[in-house]
Amino acid sequence: MTIYKKIYAPGSTKPDGCLVMNIKKEDIEKVMSDFLYLPHQAIFLLNTGGEVIASSNEEELDVSQLLDASQLPSNFYEKTTSNERYIISSIASTQYPMTYVTVSQEVI
Q1: What is the pTM of this model?
Q2: Cβ atoms of residues 28 and 78 within 8 Å
Q3: Angle at the Cα of 6 (from 4 to 10), degrees rounded to 5?
Q4: Does the pLDDT at position 58 exceed 80?
């Protein structure tokens, strides 16, 4: 993943340069996994098209069945599939064109 940030001199409104950071997908996923505290929980990073950029999803949870594009980027909603119920929360980044999504399975 590549992140760009314009750099400005103090008091300037014109950018003087650009900071570019290349981050390995595996490194992002490791950090995301460190935030998990419940069993059957996953964190996803989505681009503006709703595609998964990175995921802590080691159990191969089919996120496409759970994410409802009409609900994103709302703060919270629930989704039931078969005998499983999920709590899904999301927040859109204010700085980058991406959405952070957490999915937690609830036992019915």
Answers
A1: 0.68
A2: no
A3: 150
A4: no
pLDDT computed for residue 79 by the predictor: 77
Residue whose structure tokens are 């990175």: 54
User: CATH for 26-106, among 3.30.450.20, 3.40.50.10490, 3.40.50.2300, 2.60.34.30?
Assistant: 3.30.450.20
Instruction: Tell me the C-alpha distance between 91 and 15, whole Å.
Output: 28
Q: Which two tokens stand for residue 69?
A: 């594009």
User: Mean pLDDT throughout 3-16?
Assistant: 90
- Say which residue the tokens 């950018």 belong to: 15
Q: How many other C-beta atoms are found inside a 10 Å radius of the C-beta of residue 22? A: 7
**Mean pLDDT computed over 83-87:** 82
